[in-house]
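$ ./design --mode recover --in tokens.txt
reading tokens...
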């Protein structure tokens, strides 16, 4: 392989495929992947300005949640090993946000709260994606 050829990252392609499938099939309006400097590195369904606004607001919320979990009085109630932020689900009239922190990036999925999954016809199989 020459030095100029790009190598494909199969893990990255898998994540992108799953995110695109969510938008196609699951009532997701869009998604934003944000680095921990608050910069949207990849997004779908939003203009650049909107992605930046979402990223700023969500990063502030995640930072405040992490500061809350780090306080001593929280550790008196909840064991320290259980105070790691896993997900945030925030529902408004217009959107439902699912925020998932990862060690490198933060994923923001924006759902339509009025979305209803179509009824499956007899004999139709469930398409489940295992992560």
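writing sequence...
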């Amino acid at each position: 392989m020459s030095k100029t050829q790009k190598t494909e990252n199969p893990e990255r392609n898998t994540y992108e495929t799953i995110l695109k499938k969510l938008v196609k099939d699951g009532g997701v309006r869009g998604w934003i992947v944000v680095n921990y400097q608050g910069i949207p590195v990849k997004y779908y369904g939003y203009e650049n300005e909107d992605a930046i606004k979402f990223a700023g607001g969500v990063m502030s919320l995640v930072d405040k949640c992490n500061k809350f979990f780090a306080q001593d009085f929280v550790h008196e109630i909840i064991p320290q090993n259980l105070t790691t932020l896993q997900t945030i689900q925030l529902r408004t009239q217009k959107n439902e946000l699912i925020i998932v922190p990862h060690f490198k990036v933060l994923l923001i999925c924006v759902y339509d709260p009025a979305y209803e999954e179509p009824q499956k016809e007899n004999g139709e199989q469930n398409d489940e994606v295992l992560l």
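exit 0
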